[in-house]
Amino acid sequence: MTTISANLWFASEAEEAARFYCATIPGARMGDVVRIPPGGPGPEGGVLLVEFSLPGTSVLAMNGNPGEGFTNAFSLVALCADQAELDRVWNALLDGGQAQACGWLKDRFGVAWQVVPEALPRLMKAGDGAQRGRVIAALMQMVKIDAAALEAAFHES
């Protein structure tokens, strides 16, 4: 059976990033750390590849990026159970990173994330077009998402 994993290509921070993500995202787990063998590529014993999992996603983190960096064309989405979890994950990922808009940020490694409450996809599938429109309008005014404000926008009359 074919399986699919996300691959993040770092300059040299693969293990540091994997450990950080596993400490930040509830339910994440570290896997194997593959070291560089004699003869390279790179210094013997250095980290070549790190396997880890974020809930629902297998991820490979590699070292050796030639400087291409990350873009917003690939991002990770953290769907949080409630506002407290969202706040904790957002604050941890944002430390050393940069906030963007609508729940988007770039972490200190340059990886793009959208940190969203479970309320956002739930509200976007419920109600009528006017309710969903109010949720989108509220979302467009936010940097970090406020689940209660989304709920309030949905229920406005």
From TrEMBL:
Domain PhnB-like: 4-116
Domain of life, per lineage: Bacteria
Cited CDD domains: PhnB_like
Family matches, as PANTHER family: PHNB-LIKE DOMAIN-CONTAINING PROTEIN, PROTEIN YJDN-RELATED
Full protein name: VOC family protein
Source species of the chain: Neoroseomonas marina
